């Protein structure tokens, strides 16, 4: 079988019953990747300089090409530093993965590209948590082959520092800047793999969708993608504040750094508890930043990318984040109110919380995980009720633009 486009960049070098090894020429570097299921070439490549040492709290530096003659790209790069302690992670983590069909290139026709940004509350997750191969195989089966790419970005306090010092030194929203740099790398290099840089769709779920929503506002996203899919998130999903508002959280983190065991003790902490202990999320970063104003204000002023998107909510999205100890209507009600204000006496907010509880009764068959009948998995029925409110209405439903 002839592959006209790949004849310039792809050479099969070994065969086995399980995998095929392949080489791709990226600039002056020969990349060695892996072919899965005889259908999809997978490579994992650095897209930025390692954010270590003096670069640790700095914006990413694009690495459009490698400075070595050969590079082993067969294994996914390490996850960015995160909890729990038994997760293998590294500060040198800014890599992009590319999955591409190997035998469906028609002449010099370039394929559309799907770029995935992972979720995880901005404190956990990695580029390989979603296997891109099924998506590629499905695209092949339906006769519309695509290339799938995914990326790592800095997480937690290394990706989203808080406090006055970080603001003054321009060190806010580094994880978002990592994402933009990865998209820039893809724009420059994806044609090498048979991808069309003018046909990039970026998609993500949870924190990945929130990231994309923020990038719609002031990042030049329209120059890097032609569309987006936001699953369970948007620019307003997380509560956005000035970085100085979370100064106490940053001080607590810095105080714990000399004793790393303090952080590692959080291994057994639940997702919901960890989210409170690690409030490292996108912050307002002032004029010239990615989030100079509240998302609602920027949308009202028309300051957003004019590219189409699809927005929705994944089923059961909030189940990992709902406290398993939830056991009463009052707990749910207080949680709703406290997410909006410290003034629990606000009559309008109290009425809204009561209305939500009426719309989502304490009936296990109606709760989340959905479609599981009266099963409560050993928890209070109020857990399923609370998860349903968060999944379907409270946490992840965002404004939509037609």
From TrEMBL:
InterPro entries in UniProt: AB_hydrolase_fold, CarbesteraseB, Carboxylesterase_B_AS, Type-B_Carboxylest/Lipase
Keyword annotations of the record: Hydrolase, Signal
Molecular functions (GO terms): hydrolase activity
Enzyme's top EC category: hydrolase
Keyword Hydrolase annotated: yes
Keyword Phosphoprotein: no
Signal peptide segment: 1-21
Carboxylesterase type B domain mapped to chain residues: 44-335
EC number: 3.1.1.-
Family: Belongs to the type-B carboxylesterase/lipase family.
The protein, known as: Carboxylic ester hydrolase
Provenance organism: Moniliophthora roreri (strain MCA 2997) (Cocoa frosty pod rot fungus)
